[in-house]
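Go through the following before class.
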Amino acid sequence: MDPITQEILSSTTGITSFTITTTGGGSTIASPTSAASSSSSAPPPQLSRYENQKRRDWNTFGQYLRNHRPPLSLSRCSGAHVLEFLRYLDQFGKTKVHIQLCPFFGQPKPPAPCPCPLRQAWGSLDALIGRLRAAYEENGGKPESNPFGARAVRLYLREVRDSQSKARGISYEKKKRKRPPPPPPAALSRPADGSYE
């Protein structure tokens, strides 16, 4: 097999065979036949929004590890690296977190702009860690060595929640679920023989 054909075969995914056609001028044309077109299989199921976000988050974290100096393998990743990643993400945050010296510290809706930094919101970080924790285990990681579940990460998230709550004047108390009202008491039903005991 010539090198060009080898390159085509190795770089193309989903190709199971080639259809070779000879033209009138004596030249041959090879066109790939994909597995999807040759079989009548259904398209792969659509992933949920959560699954798509989890995959994107996992890929982003993998990219972060590859760009880390020195590059890190997932097996050598610790809670400290996860914290470094979360702090790195702060630069892309969109949530205004007032510093203590700011006149708007503790006000949920400040009346004017201020130079306080933008950060990742606590809820976003908490959800991100939840997705990465699940993705780590889905990608072969052991739950007991999951860096996203490390004590340092949990403490950091709690610290971010508390500091943002004070700085923004917003309570992050857990919302209590509304329980459905209890069913009305069953009415006395008359036994089949018509008598009450």
Q: What stands out?
A: The beta strands are 15-22, 28-34, 95-96, 118-119.
